[in-house]
Amino acid sequence: MTRTTRATTLRDNNILNDGPGISPMPWVLAILLFITVLAAAAGLSVGAAAINLSNDLAHRLTVQIIEANPDLRHAQASEVARKLKQMDQVESAEIVDDQALDQLVSPWLGKDGVEAGLPYPALVDVTLRAGHEGGLEQLKTALNSVAPSARIEPDAQWLGPLAQLLAVTTWFAGAIVVLMMVAVAAAVMLSARAALNTHRSTIDILHLMGSSDSQIAKLFQRRIVVDAAISGAIGLVGAVVMLWVTQLLLASLRSEFLGAAFMPWWVWLVLPLLPLMATLVANLAARISILRALKTLL
After folding, report:
1. Which residues contact 73 (CB under 8 A, 6 or more apart)?
2. Torsion of CA 230, 232, 234, 240, to 10 degrees
3. Helix or strand or coil: residue 149?
4. Can you give the pLDDT at residue 39?
5. C-alpha pair distances (Å), 247 with each of 112, 242, 275
6. What is the Cα–Cα distance from 76 to 80, expressed in whole angstroms?
7. Is residue 14 a part of any domain in this protein?
8. Which of 124, 52, 60, 51 lies closest to 91 in space, CA to CA?
9. Cys bridge to 30: 193, 203, 208, 234, which one at CB 3.0-4.6 A?
């Protein structure tokens, strides 16, 4: 009987039968994969939101008409909107109505301040055509003749820090995923060393029968990889259920701001790859740890 045949026979006899649920490693891996999937989902969703926000802000700007006389202010706003609509680089130019302005300033002025009729600038919401984001000086020159007090402010100027925050959050989430994979490898190595100590006498017999370190390592690898795959599936299912419930709750709020937190469809396709990655990491970590430990047993 060859060494390979003996190793296969021993594997079929399930010499490493510890019984289900005895080792804590599967539960540890399930928790790690649960956290990993949540972190990856958050990072990918926030990253997609940051890209969409940056692309949207690059084409939008706001024109403020600062004028104390309300009649003159509204007249200049109308003239500015008309002038902008005639320009080739402008896709749309809409005056923000007084009711919308009241809603914008009410958190700072309060209901009494809004009802007091305090003067505040008229706003014109402008969307530029793609490829014309850099013509601000030309816009300023064109508007100066109809509204000398007009101020042009790109939306990216005041929402840019938010896009940067979202980008940094994406990197943090990626770092968490990497750390979780390192934790998976560490947990597998500890579990593999514990399994070797538990089956020390069995390993000695296998060596006497002529089995190589590589063949013995495969026996332990097979058990660890199966545990890692099952744990990954459990962690994935738990995280997907939590994410799905969260998406339903966000949808019920019907908030435009919170709508940016919705995960793109492609994120749902990426998440199942994480348990597979963790299984590969567990397989590699188990083999390296076991082969090194077996050398010290000789």
Report:
1. 65, 67, 119, 121, 122
2. -150
3. coil
4. 93
5. 37, 9, 22
6. 6
7. yes
8. 60
9. 234
Q: What is the amino acid identity at position 33?
A: L
What are 90's two structure tokens?
């402008």
Question: Residue 87 and residue 193: Cα distance in Å, rounded?
Answer: 72
Quote the tokens at residue 187. Answer: 């947990």
- Contacts (Cβ under 8 Å, ≥6 apart) of 112: none
Alpha carbons 23 and 272: distance in angstroms, whole number = 25
| φ/ψ of residue 134, rounded to 5 | -100, 10
Give the pair of three-digit tokens for residue 198: 């538990």
Q: Is residue 195 part of a domain?
A: yes
DSSP code at position 88 = T
Q: Which two tokens stand for residue 41?
A: 């989902």
- Phi and psi dihedrals of 86, rounded to 5? -85, -10
Q: How confident is the model at residue 181 (pLDDT cuts 50, 70, 90)?
A: very high
Lowest average pLDDT, out of 134-138, 189-193, 238-242, goes to 134-138
- 62 has which bridge partners? 125, 153
Alpha-carbon distances, residue 126 vs 65, 100, 129, 154 (angstroms): 13, 16, 10, 9
User: Are residues 281 and 182 part of one domain?
Assistant: yes
Residue with the two structure tokens 């006497």: 208
Cα atoms found within 13 Å of the Cα of residue 115, Cβ hemisphere only: 3
Q: Specify whether 100 is located in the same domain as 226.
A: no
Same structural domain, 144 and 165: no
Q: Which domain holds residue 133?
A: 67-148
pTM score of the predicted model:
0.70
* Average pLDDT of the residues in 3-16: 44
**Residue 109 pLDDT class (50, 70, 90 cuts):** low
